[in-house]
């Protein structure tokens, strides 16, 4: 008898219908008409034992001298839940009866780990165990995976790496968290983790760069076009050169319109291929940027589309496909779509560079399947349309641009103006992009106006959104300086995995280490560190190893080596133990005692000093109010103070500036729906925000 052990009930039902034709439902499993049996877990049924279950001294009630603990091959236990215990018994009973056990969980590290923990805890041995690796949940995709099944032993590297990853996270996370909390004297748990802590450090560092930023004003010399003053030639300066106003004036005085010479316009043709197909991370970034979705929302909706057989496997890091053998069938299945009709009529092929087996590991890019969707929810439809559009664009011609560079010289100085216009939209036509005519292609020297001084200013970094945070988690190598560290981070493609990055961000929100802040009319909310999150980062010196992405990348590279078979399990444990004891030593030697008042995540944050009575101003649900209200002070900036003018929320930073009698520039929306900017200030007498102009 063949027994398929799936990850969830819906998966067991889908596989059963695809491979057995028809199935009947039993208690905890399905039986196919051909005798095959399809049982299922509910995700993780088995976990590693908690350290204090092995030795009470390793838990929160144990002495600090017992830390750090280190355990190899942590024993497993059944998760304490009646439904899980019942289902586990059903699975084990069926495995004992089976001739062949087929691991049919999700095709990835996590799915493999879920199955192997069940098999290991059951103690069942000497069975023929196979691995069903399904990339595509359509009937043809499942049958293809069944025909290509391999021995489960061929995934031994992935199995060991899955075990070591769970053990590493537990050993580092629990030891570091207990040590930090106990040594700092905190009444609250101060959580540290192998991946969550460097990500939190990234957000805190960005926030503090912004808050400590000092604007620098500088100047340059320009020469506007007479017919369009918004376009102008700018003086070419040395790299990183910035002019003071006096120096800019001197440069301007040295120039003379009559001395202008060597005017020329250079044209360059640029071809842009379609956007890469979506990986999970790039899809999460896209949906956050354009729809304001969290990465968790994208993953959950994508998982549903996958289970509905509408898209291929979701937890992929690839933006490529290994071959185009399934493409014809997908196009034919969707030929009722006018965009697909256009592809078929023109006999267009998918962008050749997107077919790259070397850039596909476990799974290919996310693309539609042959299953045309029906009755999708609003969110499912929105996400599916984004995936479908990206897939369709990959067949369309390249977009063609013309780039113009106009230059002239005056005395020893050069001036330059560039312009880039779309001349053939190609795949960009599907985004509504139109062709344009360059305003400078026919420019003459006589069309250039008088010299002017232009004031500029440096800009602070922008706060993270989930889009930009995911980008930097992948490209975190750019945030470190050491070349060897950069190479490690590039090799493992950043910190976290496509499957775990959204859960890390979700965890940071849940633990109140970061919060989401809506700014203006932007879809994507900003991620801002809370006081609690900052305190965790401030308890240790900035060079603490857990604050750096390098440590987690180093461990990830070793886990990859285990998976590939180039590093033994025992050698990994040696490296892990050394890293753990280094972290423990850092904590014991450097942890700071914290002001416990700062650790209460519910503590009100002082926004500013009241300009009327001098007392503290706090944030509340509806606004920013003076704490002297009991004494009659009514100073309040309401968060919705500009809502009728199209600005939904006054941010904390904006309120602080307004209460300091500063003028701020805000984006508003007219009744006709047009955006415009206005300077506003806080009128202390009216107790309201008013126009400053």
Question: Which key phrases capture this entry?
Answer:
single chain, 693 residues, alpha+beta, Rossmann fold, Topoisomerase I, domain 2, Topoisomerase I, domain 3, 5 domains, seven-stranded mixed beta sheet, six-stranded antiparallel beta sheet, 20 helices, 36% helix, 20% strand
Short description:
The protein is α+β, with helices and mostly antiparallel strands.
Could you tell me the number of beta strands?
25
Percentage beta strand: 15-25%
What is the assigned CATH homologous superfamily of the largest domain? Topoisomerase I, domain 2
Point out poorly predicted stretches.
598-603
Q: How many domains, in number, for the residues?
A: 5
Shape: globular
- What is the straight-line distance between the termini? 82 Å
Radius of gyration from the alpha-carbon trace, in angstroms: 30 Å
How much helicity do the residues have?
25-40%
Main structural class: alpha+beta
Here the CATH topology of the largest domain equals Topoisomerase I, domain 2
Could you walk me through the main structural features you see in this protein, from its secondary elements to its overall organization?
This protein is of the alpha+beta class and 693 residues long. It folds into five domains: 2-163, Rossmann fold (3-Layer(aba) Sandwich), CATH 3.40.50; 174-212 and 462-596, Topoisomerase I, domain 2 (Orthogonal Bundle); 217-273 and 399-457, Topoisomerase I, domain 3, CATH 2.70.20.10; 280-393, Topoisomerase I, domain 4 (Orthogonal Bundle); 606-691, no CATH class. The protein contains 20 helices and 25 strands. The protein has a seven-stranded mixed β-sheet, sandwiched between helices. A six-stranded antiparallel β-sheet has the order 12-13-14-11-10-15. A four-stranded antiparallel β-sheet has the order 19-20-21-22, with helices on one face. It is globular. Residues 598-603 have low confidence and may be disordered.
């Amino acid at each position: 008898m063949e027994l398929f052990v799936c990850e969830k009930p819906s998966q067991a039902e889908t596989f059963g219908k695809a491979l057995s034709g028809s199935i009947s439902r039993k208690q905890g499993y399905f039986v196919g008409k051909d005798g095959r049996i399809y049982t299922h877990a509910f995700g993780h049924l088995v976990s590693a034992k908690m350290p204090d279950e092995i030795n009470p001294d390793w838990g929160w009630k144990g002495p600090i001298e017992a830390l750090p603990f280190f355990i190899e091959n942590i024993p497993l236990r059944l998760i304490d839940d009646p439904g899980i215990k019942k289902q586990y018994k059903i699975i084990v009973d069926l495995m004992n009866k089976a001739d062949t056990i087929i691991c049919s969980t999700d095709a990835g590290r996590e799915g493999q780990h879920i199955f192997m923990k069940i098999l290991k805890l059951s103690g069942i041995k000497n069975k023929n165990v196979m691995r069903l690796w399904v990339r595509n949940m359509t009937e043809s995709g499942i049958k293809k995976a069944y025909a290509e099944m391999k021995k489960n032993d061929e995934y031994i590297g992935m199995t060991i790496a899955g075990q070591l990853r769970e053990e590493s996270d537990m050993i580092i996370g629990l030891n570091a968290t207990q040590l930090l909390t106990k040594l700092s004297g905190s009444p609250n748990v101060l959580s540290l983790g192998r991946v969550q802590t460097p990500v939190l450090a990234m957000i805190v560092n960005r926030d503090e760069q912004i808050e400590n930023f000092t604007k620098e004003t500088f100047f340059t010399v320009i020469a506007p076009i007479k017919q369009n003053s918004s376009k102008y030639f700018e003086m070419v300066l040395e790299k990183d050169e910035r002019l003071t106003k006096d120096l800019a004036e001197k440069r301007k005085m040295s120039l003379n319109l009559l001395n202008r010479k060597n005017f020329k316009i250079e044209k360059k043709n640029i071809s842009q291929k379609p956007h890469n197909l979506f990986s999970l991370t790039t899809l999460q970034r896209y949906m956050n940027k354009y729809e304001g979705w969290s990465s968790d929302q994208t993953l959950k909706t994508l998982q549903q589309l996958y289970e509905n057989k509408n898209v291929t496997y979701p937890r992929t890091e690839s933006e490529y496909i290994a071959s185009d053998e399934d493409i014809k069938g997908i196009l034919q299945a969707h030929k009722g779509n006018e965009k697909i009709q256009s592809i078929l009529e023109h006999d267009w092929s998918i962008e050749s560079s997107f077919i790259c087996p070397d850039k596909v590991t476990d799974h290919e890019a996310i693309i539609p399947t042959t299953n045309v969707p029906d009755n999708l929810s609003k969110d499912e439809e929105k996400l599916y349309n984004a995936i479908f559009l990206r897939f369709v664009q990959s067949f369309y011609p390249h977009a063609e641009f013309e780039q113009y560079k106009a230059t002239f010289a005056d005395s020893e100085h050069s001036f330059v103006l560039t312009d880039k216009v779309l001349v053939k939209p190609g795949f960009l036509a599907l985004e509504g992009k139109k062709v344009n005519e360059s305003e400078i292609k026919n420019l003459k020297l006589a069309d250039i106006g008088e010299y002017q001084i232009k004031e500029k200013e440096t800009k602070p970094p922008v706060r993270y959104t989930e889009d930009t945070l995911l980008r930097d988690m992948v490209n975190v190598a750019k945030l470190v300086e050491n070349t060897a560290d950069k190479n490690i981070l590039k090799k493992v493609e950043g910190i976290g995995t496509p499957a775990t990055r959204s859960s890390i961000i979700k965890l940071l929100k849940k633990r109140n280490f970061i919060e989401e802040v809506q700014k203006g009319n932007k879809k994507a909310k900003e991620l801002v560190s809370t006081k609690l999150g900052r305190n965790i980062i401030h308890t240790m010196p900035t060079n603490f190893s857990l604050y750096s992405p390098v440590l987690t990348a180093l461990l990830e590279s070793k886990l990859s080596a285990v998976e590939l078979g180039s590093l033994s399990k025992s050698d990994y444990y040696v490296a892990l133990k050394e890293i753990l004891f280094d972290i423990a030593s850092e904590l014991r030697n450097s942890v700071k005692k914290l002001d416990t008042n700062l650790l209460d995540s519910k503590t009100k944050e002082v926004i500013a000093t009241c300009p009327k009575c001098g007392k503290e101003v706090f944030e509340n649900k509806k606004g920013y109010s003076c704490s002297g209200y009991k004494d009659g002070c009514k100073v309040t900036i309401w968060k919705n103070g500009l809502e009728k003018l199209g600005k939904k929320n006054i941010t904390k930073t904006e309120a602080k500036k307004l209460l300091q009698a500063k003028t701020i520039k805000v984006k508003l929306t007219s009744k006709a729906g047009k955006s415009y900017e206005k300077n506003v200030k806080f009128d202390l007498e009216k107790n309201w925000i008013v126009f400053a102009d």
